[in-house]
Amino acid sequence: MEQAHARVLRKSARSVLFGSSAVALLTFFCFQVHVDFASAIPLYLLVVVLQSLTGDFRSSAIVASLSAGCLDFFFTEPLFSFRMTNPLNGLALVAFLVTALVITRLVSRVRTEAEFSRLQEERLNRLYQLSQRLLTLEPEMAMAEKLLPPFSELFGITVMSIFDAAAGELFTFGDSQTSLAERTREAYIHEHDLDDRDSGTAIRCLRAGGKLTGAIGLEGIQDTAETASALAALAATFFERARAFANASTAAAAAQTESYRSAVLDALAHEFKTPLATILAAAGGLRETGPLAAEQLELADTVESEAARLGRLTTRLLRIAKLEREDIRPRLELVDIASLVTQIAGRYSARFPDRRIQLPGRSDIPEVLADPELLRLTLGQLIENAYKYSHADSLVTIGIERLDGFVAVRVSNNGSSIPYEEQNRIFERFYRGADAIRSTTGSGLGLYVARKIALAHGGTLELESRRAANDVIFCLKLPVSKDESSYALTAN
Amino acid sequence: MPSPRTNVLVVDDESSLRRTLRASLSASGFDVEEAHDGETALSTLERRPFDLILLDINMPGMSGIDACRRIRVLSPRAGIVMVTVHDHEDDKVHALEAGADDYVTKPFKLRELTARLRAVLRRTRIQDAPLPEVLEAGNLKIDLRRHLLWQGQEEVHLSPTEFDLLAFLMKNMGAPLTHVKLLRSVWGPEYGGELEYLRSYIRMLRKKIERNPAKPEYILTEPWLGYRFCNPSDPDSPPGTDEDE
What we know:
The complex is a heterodimer of chains A (492) and B (245).
Chain A: H1 2-32, H2 37-54, H3 57-75, H4 87-136, H5 148-155, E1 159-164, E2 169-173, H6 180-190, E3 194-196, E4 201-208, E5 211-219, H7 225-289, H8 294-325, E6 333-335, H9 337-351, E7 356-358, E8 368-370, H10 372-388, E9 395-402, E10 406-414, H11 420-423, H12 434-439, H13 446-456, E11 460-463, E12 471-479, H14 484-487
Parallel strand pairs in A: 7-9
Antiparallel strand pairs in A: 1-2, 1-5, 3-4, 4-5, 6-8, 9-10, 10-12, 11-12
Chain B: E1 7-11, H1 15-27, E2 31-35, H2 38-47, E3 52-56, H3 64-74, E4 79-85, H4 89-97, E5 102-106, H5 110-125, E6 134-137, E7 140-143, E8 148-151, E9 154-156, H6 160-171, E10 176-178, H7 179-186, H8 195-209, E11 219-222, E12 226-229
Parallel strand pairs in B: 1-2, 1-3, 3-4, 4-5
Antiparallel strand pairs in B: 6-7, 7-8, 8-9, 10-12, 11-12
Helix pairs in contact in B: 2-3, 6-8
């Protein structure tokens, strides 16, 4: 800063020296050829104007004063004295001085403004170049060292620190002598910008939608505070773009992984079907080939029933994988949901004889408009979960009630619970609770698909687990057909 | 088993399944021959007729559906049972449209398969016989000429459309019938997409003839395909679906 000041002073001194020399020459010349006072005034004015074209206002004012002095000393009576006998001469001299100063002032202002415009244009040009350079950078390069070079080449930035409040991360590019990173973080905490001209540091807080989102610190900056703000804004924009790109890439990768997983599941299930059909045909054939001993018959039956079960599991897995991938288009018809629940619960209670079950009493439950196959899948999933994730002697309770425009089926089991932090996640694709992974097998798709089916029917599927109570309640709500009569056509 | 023994052509590209089916079906009283693809099946059929053809829908080369269409032309009287995969629901509709008489879904129990084969065989055998005026199933008795239905000793009143629908179902006893086929046959050829009509009439019929309409014994739903009328006293009638696992 001091150097710049000295440079300006030196430039002024040179300008004064040049102007003074011109005034001295003019004085010598006019004195030799006996130019009178009136004629000398415009000549001096010319010199002052010429000088002000190159020098600043301060030096021009000095030269103008010197000219006034010379005019008084060499050209007014009495000569070689600053005194004046004719007051009109004094008036003319004052008019000269005022005119010279006004002209000088105007000229230097025009020059300053032109200079400022030039700087402004040049600054804009560099900012434009910087934004162009940033645009050509690959978004994934943002976190790397590639971000700094454009800033340093165009604006002399030596260090850059970015504090991202959302992620709580602090990135620094370049080696800072003034612990820029820490100062950037502090600026964010105290929520105020900083301009330190001595060290060429500028720190700006970043806001989005009125909210503080982070801070950017720049070191080595030689421009004005406005430039610092513009640079910070550019860096922040690019940083955001890179972050959005990174998020999008992660999401795309996750989607692809899921689609692969689903495809593998699908292929696997298909590959299972033919061997299973072969086993079933062989077990059945064994029974037909001839008289078997009772034990042999029992073994053949076991092979057959277990292979058949594996086949049903495979089919269900395949169907769930398909429903997971595709849009669900239910083929609606009126379904007696109460009978369906009783039917499905009956099958599962036979498979888990050590659980106690409480079924809904038959009451006036209206039919729902649903795809019976999909509804069977959803109810089966809920009832199976209640059995699978509870312990021996647990009570599985199924209740159905009519609500306003809905039928609600509640499936609950006691003796187990879903941790609070998992409750919001159990409906996510492929999510399996920590306990679930330990205790039973599953694809992590069942509840996701069950909810998808419920939503496709205009209903809901929710967890009503209470944190303190040691039980899990799932509630499936399906809309009652608005106009049951439109389906119950009168017989013609 | 009827005599002479029923002969079955098993068409499947999986050799282990083919061999196992040959052994098991032979043990169940069928004469079995194998073909590993559609072309071989057609050339075998050109040499000699078969009573039944068990045809896999997924085969390399000529698809099962194409093979079915050509076999139907070659052997109009043979019973064709297609082997489908569960999750491709449209396959069943395509199979029936291509001329198949019925289908089984992989993986299937041997008993289920033999029941299907026997039922199809019976239907193809009675194809040529004149349709009797009175049909019976379980405790239902329908008089096609006089438009009357009895359940046991009691007469059941049906509307004309209900009667036509039930009559069509009972005439095709044991056969899977698609929604479209039912609509066109009962309501007329210009129908086909009006599923709600069909469903509401099926509901009405079930209320009138089933002991528990929610668990029907006569009019079974073939998921996403249509309906099948079953005779509960027929040992070869398909068992109820048991899909919850």
